[in-house]
Design goal:
By secondary structure, the chain is an alpha+beta fold. It contains three helices and four strands.
């Protein structure tokens, strides 16, 4: 499965990069395949391991912020691995035509 999620601290002002970095650090330390862009972090793995990382990423922000917003979107497709790369490669193939 692939989960795209964003964790946003609330009540800490406009500059939230330091808090978001705490969440991304948890994802990177997980060892699971992942990508971070300006809006979301995507992570790939089995249900329990991915959801555990999301939970720990939220907890890292929650430890420093009075309130946390979580947005999550999941692609649950058993048997598919390397979806983070293969889905993008498929689109790039079509764009190259």
């Amino acid at each position: 499965m692939i989960v795209a999620f964003s964790v946003t601290p609330l009540g800490v002002g406009e500059d939230v990069g330091e808090y978001v970095a705490d969440a991304v650090r948890v994802v990177r330390e997980s060892g699971l395949p992942h990508r971070t862009d300006a809006m979301f972090t995507s992570i790939e793995g089995e249900w329990d391991e991915v959801m555990d990382v999301v939970k720990r990423a939220v907890a890292a922000v929650e430890a420093r912020a009075p309130r946390v917003s979580l947005v999550l979107k999941a692609d649950i497709r058993p048997g598919v691995t390397d979806g983070l790369t293969s889905k993008v490669e498929t689109v790039e193939r079509y764009l190259a035509r």
